[in-house]
Amino acid sequence: MLLAIDFENLHQILRNLYTDMMPLCANMAGVAKGIAGLGALFYVATRVWQSLSRAEPIDVYPLLRPFVIGLCIIFFPTFVLGTINAVMSPVVKGTNQMLQTQTFDMDKYREQKDKLEYEAMMKNPETAYLVDDEEFDRQLEELGWGPEDMMVNAGMRIERGMYQIKKAVRDWFRELLELLFQAAALIIDTIRTFFLIVLSILGPIAFAISVYDGFQSTLTQWISRYISVYLWLPVSDLFSSILARIQVLMLQNDIVNMQNDPGFSIDASNTVYIIFMLIGIVGYFTIPTVANWIISAGGMGSYNKNMQTAAAKTGGAAGAVAGAVSGNISGKLMK
Known about the structure:
Blueprint: H1 7-21, H2 24-53, H3 65-74, H4 76-123, H5 125-131, H6 133-142, H7 147-201, H8 203-209, H9 217-230, H10 232-260, H11 266-284, H12 287-294, H13 301-334
C-alpha cells in the first residue's frame, strides 16, 4: 500500500531532531562571546571617546546594549530560543488541534459515504453483484446452462472484472495523490527543521556580529527569519485544516445527495476530490510565502520563488499523470 508510511512518526522524528541539535548552540556560544567581547570593547570605546572629545556627558544607557547582547549569547538556548519557542508554541498547538479535529470529522464522514455507496449498489440487482461476492455467486447459481445463460454468465464476469479494475486504479491513484500530499507536507517540515537548526546553532554568531556598528540589523533580521520559518508549521496545519474542512463539506454534500438523489454520480464526486488534492499539493509550496506575509523576513524571496516553481512543476506532473491514467482507462472501457 502506498500509504503504509507513518508520516506522523516522520514529523515526530524531525521534532526530536531539532531538540537533539539544540545543545550545539553552547559550542557556538564560546566563539560568539569572544567576537561579541571584542565588538563591545570597540563599541564602548568609540562612544566614550566621542563624548570626551566633544566635552559632552557620557550617556550610559546606549552603552548597555553590547552587555545585554552578551547575556543573550551566554544564555542563548534558554533565554533566546526558549522564550521565542514558548511564545510561539501555543500557536502551533492551536493550529494542530484544529487539524486533528477536522481530520477526525473527515474520516468519520468518509466511512459513512463508503457505507452509503455500498448500500446504493446493493439496492440495485444490476449492480449488487459488482460489490458483493455472495450476491455474485447467487446470481450465477440462478443461471442455467443454455447458450443465453452462458453469455450472461460471461458478461457478468467481464463487467465485474472491469469494475474491480476501475475501482483498483481509482483507489491507487487516490492513494498516490494522498501520498504526494503528505510528502509535500513532509518536505515543508524537513526544510523548516533544517532552517531552524541552522538559525539556532549560528544564532549566537549573528548576535555577536550585531554588536558591531553597521551590523545592528543582523539581530532583528535573525529574529524575524527565525519566527517566519517557525510559523511554517502552524501555517501548514492551518492550510491542511482548511482543506480537510472543504473535504468534510464535500462529503456531507455527497451523503445528502446519495440519500435523496438516486441518480447521483459517484465518479463525478471522486473527480472533484482528485482536483482538490492537486490544489492541496500545489498550495503546500506557497506556505513559506504566506508565513513571510505574517513576519516579513528579508533575503528569502529567491527561495520562495524556487518553491513556487517546484509547486507548479509538481502540480503539472500530477495533472499529467491524472490525465494519462484517466484517458487510458476511458479508452479501454470504450473498447
